[in-house]
Prior knowledge:
Oligomer: heterodimer
Strand order of the largest sheet of chain B: 2-1-5-3-4
Number of helices of chain A: 12
CATH architecture of the domain at 230-329 in chain A: 2-Layer Sandwich
Largest sheet of chain B: 5 strands, mixed
Structural class of chain A: alpha+beta
Distance between the termini of chain B: 57 Å
Amino acid sequence: MHPFTLERPRDLAAALAFRAQAGRNDAPAEYIAGGTDMVQLLQENVRRPDRLVSLAGLLENRIESGPQGIRVGAAATMAEVAAHPTVIEQFPVISEALLNSASPQVRNQATMGGNLLQRTRCPYFRDVGYAACNKRAPGSGCSAIGGENRWNAVLGTSENCIAANPSDLAVALVALDASVDLRGANGVRVVPLAEFHRLPGDTPHIETVLEPGEVIAAITVPANPAGRRSHYLKVRDRASFEFAVVSTAVALDMEGGRIRQARVALGGVGTKPWRVPRVEAALAGAGLDPAALRTAAALAAEGAQGRGHNDFKIELMQRAIVRAVETAGARA
Amino acid sequence: MPGLTPEAAAQTAGAAPAPLDLVLRVNGTEHRLKLDPRTTLLDALREHLHLTGSKKGCGLGQCGACTVLMDGKRVKSCLSLAALVEGREITTIEGLAQGDQLHPLQAAFIERDAFQCGYCTSGQIMAGVACINEGHAGSAQEIRDWMSGNLCRCGAYDHIVAAIQDAALATGSVRGG
């Protein structure tokens, strides 16, 4: 593990003053909260920060609910949010996404804010034995394009990076129009989660819109009548403790057996959590008959590009949407 | 295969950082330590407090052999930096028995022969204790799902599940039972 200075500031202002930055391998200082991803990255020399700034005890962990929706402090653990009665009742898709993530131990340690900042599971990013990874070492190339890319993205890719965003939580949240409060020295700015992660483009090493000295302070999910009839479907290589090959978050507002409004997002296939508005528009007004769902789900493939081993994801993600809509639609 | 990077060749280049003073609460006892900030909770337990019951399998949060309780909740001690868990109450396998009286799950592991090589066992037991306390030991299927963070390379899973079911019944923790 690369040597680093560990800062344990007394308050958040002091922590922000270090101007650390998450999600960039060229940042000399980085924040650590639950640590479940960061310690792995440090152990494997993927991250080599000179300074690590602890956020332990400095961010809120309250879960508040009201007529406007729910607001979750960034330090709340995945386990706490997954088990929260209001979350289970109003947004089952969030609880399901969390319970299908990682292991019980990790869910007790990992924070909600950190979950949104976890780094890709692209095997070439995670293994410093491979020299070429534009995300880890800007300008070095991409080993996944033309390499073993079964786990990589088919949506939002560029010729520089095809790494998939691994968060299940983010998929559920982006479907529900969640936003994040970003706290910096000059106050708070609210950013829709859909605009928080950046597409790789020519700069895959810059993963989010976070500036130096800025942290996720809270996550807000606005009230939504579709939230109660929602579902997270995760397709993976084993039944538990595994990242998604393909996943989808679906929330439906139904009336008389027809879909009034649908929210659909995909995981495991995008370089960021991937909302599919054209699928949502096609589902609006539709019933739950398989042919209509299949036609709507096909629109998810717009712009999708397989790289060989991951070609199957383009078909699989459409089938996942169909099944998730059927499951959510059958809920009372 | 592409060439090796300098990072891979020089795993831990650079001088060791200044040690940190910290206090860990483990099994009801406070320990004052001076540790390299890179020290994980697992390494602090094993190498500095000589509590070697918690095992290091992968060191990356995948195998669960290092599972301990933190404020009563199960965590992977290899994924926490020791300096960031000051003030938390850590319980290891060494703190589970009451004197010579084994915890019901320890006794059930012996009764059910729920191990072969034993390397994963302390982690399995700590995770199993939490699984029972959380109310996630209601059926074999539920136990399998909620124990998925602990791997057993010998494949003793059937006996591990049976031991957890026995202990859950013995402690009256099974819902509706």
